[in-house]
Each structure stands twice: as C-alpha cells, then as structure tokens.
Amino acid sequence: HKLHPLLAALPKCEHHMHVEGSLSPELLFELAARNGVTLPVAEDDSFASTEALYARYARFTSLDDFLHYYYIGMSVLQTAADFETLAMEYFKKAHAANVRHAEIFFDPQVHLARGISLADVVRGLRAASLRATAELGGMTSLLIPCLLRHLPVADSGELVSQLREGYWAGGDEQKQEETVVNALEAAFEGDKDAVSLRGALAGLGLCSSERDLPPTLWREVYQEARRHSVSSAEKPTLARRGATRLTAHAGEEGPAEYITLALDHLGAQRIDHGVAAATDPAVMERLAREQILLTVCPISNVCLRVTKSVKEVPIRTFLDANVPFSINSDDPAYFGGYIQENYCAVQEAHDLSVDDWATIVRNSIRLSWCDDARKQVVL
Ligand code: HPA
Ligand code: ZN
Questions:
Q1: What ligand 1 atom has the least distance to the C-alpha of 252?
Q2: Domains, in order of start, for the chain
Q3: Closest residue (by CA) to atom 2 of ligand 1?
Q4: Is 249 in the pocket of ligand 1 (CB under 6 A)?
Q5: What is the pLDDT of residues 121-177, one digit of tens each?
Q6: What pLDDT score was predicted for residue 264?
Q7: Angle at 22 between CA 263 and CA 208, to 5 degrees
Q8: Secondary structure of residue 134 in the 3-state scheme
Q9: Looking at this predicted complex, what is its ipTM?
C-alpha cells in the first residue's frame, strides 16, 4: 500500500503487549531444552516442532483456546535471564518498527504458581527495559503486572499486597521512605537487588478469560491498588517516579457493559481491547467525553475470532465518534504480527487518510503513561 512507508516511519507507542505473548516457538524450544522443561508432547503433538506449533497457532478458535497454549508456553521461562532475553527480543523488534515507548504486560501469578519469585521476573524485565533505553535510541518502557481472571480473586489480592510492599513507587510517603531506608541497609549488607525494584512496576492490569467473569469481582482488589496510587495532579514528583496506573481488559469477548463496570468499579483509566464499545452508543459517548484510551489489537481480534476480519474491527466508528484508541499487537508471537503488521492490516482494511493516522498517533502519544517531557521527545 502507498501509505506503508509512512506507517513504518510513524513514531509509535505500544500499550497492549503481553511479554509472554512475544515468546516465539524458536525461543520456546530453546529455553525448554536449556531449562529441562518437558512440554506436553504426549497430550497434544502441537509441541512436536516449531512448524507444528506455528500451525496450531494459526487455528485458535477462542480466547481460552489461545490461553491454553500461552500458559504452557511460558512454563519454559525460569530465570531472570530468561525474562531479560524474552523482553529484549521484543524491544529489538519494536525498535525496528519505530516504537519509541512501550507499556508491556506480564502475568506474575502464573510464574509465582510455578515457584518463580516475583523479584526474579521483575529483575529480568527491568534489566531489559534499562538496556533498551541505553541501546535502542532511548526507547522507554513501563512494566505492568496483570491479574488473571481465571484464578481465584483472593490470589489477585495476594499479588496486590506484594506489589504494594515492594514494587510500586506511589503510595504512603512515610512507608516509602522506610522502604528506601530498609533497602539501603540491605544493600549495605550485600543484597543489592533490594534497592532496585521499588518503582520498577508502573500499574495494574486485568486479563485472561473474560466470559462470565465481570470486572466487579475485582472491585476490592483494585480499591487496594488505588489506595496506593497517587494522582499526578496531586503529587507530581511521586507520579514521575511511577504512580500506580490502572487498566483492565474489557469488551474483548465480553459485552460493552464490562467496559462500564471496569471504569465504574475498578477505576480503570484505560480499557484494553474494548472493541465491544461499538455496540453501545452510550458507552461510545462516555469514552469520547472522558477520553478513555482503548488499546485495540486488530490481528489478535481476528485470530481469536472476536471479529471475522480486520475490516470488522470498528476503527472507523471509533475515529468518527472521537473515541481515542491505539493499535497494538497483544501477543505478537502467537498471532503472527507485531505492531507494524497491525498498523498495515488496519490500513489495508480501512483505507485511512493521513489525517486519520495523525489522530491515531497523537492520541497514542498523548494518552501514554510516560511523563509529559517524554511525550515531547516521542513526538
Ligand atoms: N485477552 C485476555 N487475556 C490475555 C490476552 C488477551 O487478549 N492476551 C494475553 N492474555
Ligand atoms: Zn491482551
């Protein structure tokens, strides 16, 4: 398409990418061999080879069908170095597509259940994030842990306690000072890792299976996270250090009503996917009025049969209604497309104008969760 060179050159922000979903079959088998992880070959010969796995990925029938493979895949991630390798591979691909700022999700509960500490996961991801800034043209990133809807809500509550204790920057300043002092003391005694993880995580998300799991179930858990968060208007310095930002997947397989529930009951400041909004004029009107960003993932929607084609993703409807959205890859290694392919697929299907793209890029920068100074540079 004649606009593709322009699309490649656009400065991009990615807001919806699960780092475990960037695990390629090649890296999956490499890490399985290195870490001695047995894949369920007997149960499903999709894990017999990279080719077989790619072929299976091309036939997902639903979100849950995909999630089954996604959770098995991530079992090969064992050490901080594995997470660093994984994230670094993503950052390099994103940089090649002119991504200047990325907000990436990960699923702590799965790793905790496998006996891997949150500190190891975050240490690895954080190392990659810092390396990306140093080695990939100053690219910035934020790390956002997601709660998993298919697990008991109490499990989410325990994770949020851990996040408040040691990973989010915001919250009670007194307690924060104490934590810093404790961390410095620990560093003095040789435990250097204790210093670096407070502030490493920027917010909270909610993902996994959606059907019959309304956001209201996580109301109290999000309330705990909100109690910890600071608004940038009130405390700009703390915000710069990484206030807790709240988002949630809603309106992917679930109804538009779940978007409203995520906004009202969770205090979500952004909605991941949210394509079901197009079915409800009142929800559309609200998203436009409150300028709530939808992090839309067109190729994912087709792969998981949320829509029949990229044409059916309501891009034009959102543009016409002034509902802000960004275009993202979700789980690029599983859906066969990184951010660039998603931009191009939207262009092929919707034949947007240069002005439309200017709107999309401006909104994705403006509604990023980096600070304003960074937004100036990204532009
Ligand atoms: N939806 C819900 N959960 C997920 C997704 C998704 O698209 N990707 C990874 N976890
Ligand atoms: Zn997602």
A1: 1
A2: 4-26+80-378 (3.20.20.140)
A3: 208
A4: yes
A5: 999 999 999 999 999 999 999 999 999 999 999 999 999 999 999 999 865 555 556
A6: 97
A7: 35
A8: helix
A9: 0.96
